[in-house]
Task: structure prediction
Amino acid sequence: MNEKPDEPQQAAPAEEQKPIEPEPKGPPTVKLETSMGNIVIELNDEKAPITVRNFLGYVNEGFYDGTIFHRVIRNFMIQGGGFNTNLAKKPTHEPIKNESSNGLKNDRGTIAMARTNDLDSATSQFFINHQDNAGLNYPTRGGYAVFGKVVKGMDVVDAIAQVKTTEKAGMTMPGEQSFPVENVVIISAKVVSN
Result:
C-alpha cells in the first residue's frame, strides 16, 4: 500500500509586525550620594559631549566613591572629585578639551569642570556653582566648561556651601579659608538614567 508523502504545510501568513519604536532617551543623570545628602545632576551630552563622556567614565569606574569636596567657598562654588578622605590625590586619565564655548553658563546649580590655567587641563575635578558666576563664563580667561545642572538636591549644595572651612597647606590657596574642617564625602556616584 502506497502511502502519500505528507503534504508540506503552508505557513500561516505572518502578521505584519510594526517596528518597535525605541523609548525616548533622556539626558544622562547622575546621583551623588554625599555625607550631607543626595545631589542629582542632569548632564548635557548634546552641548558638552567630550566633558560628559569623561565625567561618566569616572562615574562608571567608581572613581568618585570616597572622594571629598575639598574646596568650598560660600556664594561661589563647591569643588570635589580629586582627593580621597586621606587627602591623597587620585590618579586620573588624560586631560580633556575645554568645551567652555558651548553656550552653557556658570549659573547657580550648574556643574562645570575645574582646571588649571591651562585651558585643556580638566581631568576628574568638578565644581557646582553656588551662585551665578558670570566671571567663569567663556570667553573670560578661556571660561570653565559647564556640562550639566542640579535637578534635585540644591538644598544639599547650599548646606555644603555653609560648612565651616579653614586654610590648609597644600589644599588651599594662601589666605583662602576653603577647606572643610570636617570631611564632606561623596559616598558614591551612580548613573540613575540615560
